[in-house]
């Protein structure tokens, strides 16, 4: 995923955004992190984090501890043991190597694998490109930009026929009238 036009990578390969530091927590330098995807614990798998500080500076840090804390995660970094040190990280974006991710056991995919896929409907053909994900209480919605404008597709298995990562495609079977509902 390019950041300011630069593809972020490290020795382990491409990086992806895993969260953002929203606040400090306590006096011992812990950080409160909002995961990039709600409920994601991917940060716990990170061996090394690339930290993009609000100043634009990039640095590498090792996570000592990651634990759930409500909708957030608490992160302790090596070398950050006081609230004064932690304050410098507020607003920082956290990136980790895709290679550090655990393979989902249920066959599901990570968002970074889906982002940018071309969405093709059985009836309508190309609907557009999968741009983002909206998290809602009922189910997530895929935001697709293309010839029909912005289309919101429910991210449910009943509508998805196939995902071919090598071809960069998601094949769907949309119900009649769904495209018109987004107008």
TrEMBL record:
Q: Which residues form the Ribosome maturation factor RimM PRC barrel domain?
A: 111-178
Please provide the record's free-text comment about the domains of this protein.
The PRC barrel domain binds ribosomal protein uS19.
> What's a Pfam family in this record?
PRC_RimM
Q: Which organism is it from?
A: Desulfuromonas thiophila
Presence of keyword rRNA processing: yes
Q: Which domain of life is it from?
A: Bacteria
Q: Where in the cell is it found?
A: Cytoplasm
Family label: Belongs to the RimM family.
Q: Name one GO cellular component term.
A: cytoplasm
Where is this protein chiefly located? Answer: cytoplasm
Give the transmembrane region(s): none
The entry's protein name is: Ribosome maturation factor RimM
Indicate the quaternary assembly: Binds ribosomal protein uS19.
| GO terms under biological process | ribosomal small subunit biogenesis; rRNA processing
Entries under SUPFAM superfamilies matching the protein: PRC-barrel domain, Translation proteins
Annotated InterPro entries:
PRC_barrel-like_sf (IPR011033), PRC_RimM (IPR056792), RimM (IPR011961), RimM_N (IPR002676), RimM_N_sf (IPR036976), Transl_B-barrel_sf (IPR009000)
Concerning Gene3D superfamilies, the annotation shows: PRC-barrel domain (2.30.30.240), RimM (2.40.30.60)
Q: Which residues form the RimM N-terminal domain?
A: 18-99
Keywords for this entry?
A: Chaperone, Cytoplasm, Ribosome biogenesis, rRNA processing
According to the UniProt entry, its GO molecular function terms are: ribosome binding
């Amino acid at each position: 995923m390019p950041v300011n036009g630069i593809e972020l990578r490290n020795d382990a390969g491409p990086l992806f955004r895993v969260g953002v530091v929203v606040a400090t927590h306590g006096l011992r330098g812990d950080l409160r992190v909002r995961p990039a995807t709600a409920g994601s614990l991917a940060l716990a798998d990170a061996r090394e984090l690339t930290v993009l500080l609000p100043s634009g500076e990039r640095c590498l840090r090792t996570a000592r501890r990651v634990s759930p804390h409500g909708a957030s995660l608490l992160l302790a970094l090596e070398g950050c043991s006081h609230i004064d040190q932690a304050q410098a990280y507020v607003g920082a974006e956290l990136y980790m190597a895709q290679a550090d991710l655990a393979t989902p056991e249920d066959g599901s995919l990570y968002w970074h694998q889906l982002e940018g896929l071309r969405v093709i409907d059985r009836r309508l053909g190309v609907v557009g490109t999968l741009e983002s994900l909206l998290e809602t209480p009922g189910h997530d919605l895929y935001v697709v930009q293309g010839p029909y404008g912005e289309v919101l597709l429910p991210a449910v298995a009943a509508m998805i026929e196939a995902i071919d990562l090598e071809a960069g495609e998601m094949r769907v079977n949309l119900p009649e009238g769904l495209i018109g509902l987004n107008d």
